Structures are given as structure tokens and as C-alpha cells.
Amino acid sequence: MKSARSPGRPRSSAADRAILDAALRLLASDGYARMTMDGVAAEAGVSKATIYLRYRGKADLATAALAHLRDAGRREPTGDLRQDLVDLLSQMRANAERVSVMGIIGTCLAEEGHTPELLRLFRERTLLPRRAALAALLADARDRGELAPDADIEAAATLLMGAYQSRYLSGEPFPERWEERLVTTLLAGLRP
Hints:
Elements: H1 13-34, H2 37-44, H3 48-54, H4 58-72, H5 81-98, H6 101-110, H7 116-143, H8 153-170, H9 178-190
Helix pairs in contact: 1-2, 1-4, 4-7, 5-7, 5-9, 7-8, 8-9
């Protein structure tokens, strides 16, 4: 008896990576508004049909690419809360600066009325997972007794997420060791 075979060829992981990497390059160089599916296909060396087999449209692809960027540089937590938070904030800042995330956020907000899917996917794939990762580090530390039992984990994660946007929008340069200073200040208020 023959085993059942799923129809079609399996998807190529090389094509998957090429598409996501091409989308990231175009987001970084052209921004969301000027990134096109044709441009991504040409940059990735695949057909547009190959892209549309994986993604419903530009919003789906762009937010998948941002999630790919977030996951690609993620380090495993070490258990040293301070260093883990600094590492996560450093990665978040580097990624945001690599693809001009603030411009993408602006586009998401400006297009909310016309393309609500873009903001929804950005939240689901980028913002909320990053905040959840920060909250998980803080909750684990609270469970280990490193933070006060009543430490407001959600508020702390939100403060860490918003700190980059606030500094960026101020137009002021990021000071040396910004992430370390931010984490030190936050932890001072959360320690038992």
C-alpha cells in the first residue's frame, strides 16, 4: 500500500529566506510605501507567484519579514536579568535602525483607516511578541525573587518598549551605553 503524498512540491526554505531577506532589504532602502511585490520578487530571484503562495499581500510579507528579523538575532536568555534585558534592547534598537521601523510605524498608523491589516499584523508579529519577551524575562526574575513580588511586569515591559520610540522621536542622539542606563534605572524601581 502506498503512503499518501501531499499535492505539489514542498516549499523551498531557501526561497523562503530569500523572500524575507529581500523584503527586509527593500524595507530598509525604500520603506514600506515604495516596497513592491515585483521588487521583492526580483531582489529574491523568485516569481511573484512564489511570493503569493506564501503571503497574501504586501502587509503580510512586510510584517513576516520584520518577525523574521526579530527572530534571527534573538539570543537565548542567560538568567542574568540585567544582561538579558540589555541584550534584548540592543537587538531591538539595531533591528529598528536597520529597517527604519519608526517610518514603518508611522505608515502603519497613517494607513490604519485604509489598510487596518497592516497595523494589526505589525502588532501581532512585531510589537506584542517583543513586549511579551521583555515581560517573560521580568516575570521569570520576579519568580526567582530578583524583583519585588508586586513588581508591575506589564508596566515595566511597556516602559522598556516605549523608551526607544521616545528617544528616537526627540531627535536627540542616543547616549553611550543607553540600553544599560535604561535597564539600571528601571531595575532600581523593581528590586525588592
